[in-house]
Amino acid sequence: MRSIRPALAAASLAVALVLTATACESGDKKADAKPTNSAAQEGDQAGGEGGAELPEDLDAIADRLKEHGIDVDKWKDGEWKNWDKDKWLREAKDFANPVIEDLWSPERMKSAKDPSQTISAKAASGSEGVTDPEPRPVRAQKERTPYHNYAAPVGKIFFDTPEGTAVCSGTVVKDPRNPGKSNLVWTAGHCVHQGKKGGWYRNIVFTPAYNDKGKSPAQMQNAQPQEVAPYGNFWADWVSTSGEWIDGTTATDPEGGSYEYDYAVMHVKPEKGGKSLEETVGAALPVDFSSPAPKSVDAMGAWGYPQAEPFNGVLMHKCVDRPGRLSLTSSAPTMYRIGCTMTAGSSGGGWFREISNGKLALVSNTSIGPAGSAGWLAGPQLGDGAKRVFDTMSEKYGNK
Fold it and tell me: Taking the model in full, what pTM does it have?
């Protein structure tokens, strides 16, 4: 373990890769949300064969909104703030996220802070199946700056919820059908959809290498736009997550969250136009869908932007630990769990492991942590269901 941890950290730096952890956070109240997925409503390992019809054209946003009585121009002028049940789209085929240019100004990004803890482990206390002893806390370490040199694929995700602006973390991942030109971002399902009790979140953007130079909150007050978002903002024009997350089919808590399937893939485009996300950032990570047994992995690393206290949301952190197992219910796959003190805001952040020659691959994402404290993080295993969601995104929208 001692020899593996430094190697994992070094590999992430050398290739400008990232590891992630912890949940979302909202600037108003609680954006904890268990988000839903869009594209293919297909599950992970324990089933999830349902298939949602996918639109053929990413430019059909206006038509999809009109079908629900929503005018795109009015939407951009503020109608998106209407979260009435009949206006809050939740089905996979109804995802819509029209670009509202300059909505996510540096000032608005700053307002998505000091959120409530958005992840909890209420269900873990009565878990069935196989659960390993709780890991010892691993203190989160600050990533070196500038982030684009050491963790270029990692970034922050900003979005709007009924409770206000919220944040998560995400990772640029490779698109095997569009080598070198990926526009895909991996994150948690609860960062894009509220799940069983709600619908798709709105104004979802990915900001790679957010706060590139690692400025403090005070310094960020006078930071230039290129320091806040060195590569600009990338809007999600399509998102896919598991049907289990949307429907809460394995939920063991009152909120209806199927955390074992809490993953999502976003297809993004630059707000101002330009090259693909991977070309712009200069790096991306492959996704490992082999679901390795925890005992076969010496170390996993999680990267993200924790925002709940004692963190501030503007600095990227990381944790590396040997993974264990966490079971929430015997009817669903076990989750990976590592010791880590990152808090809400790191949700959706990627987890990585070495696959060969020091190279890293994304193997999970931060989903939940302990309620009322910070000492560990858990993420879903990525198996056949996750691969189907990913392949659908790549095949249908990858070259858009």
Answer: 0.86
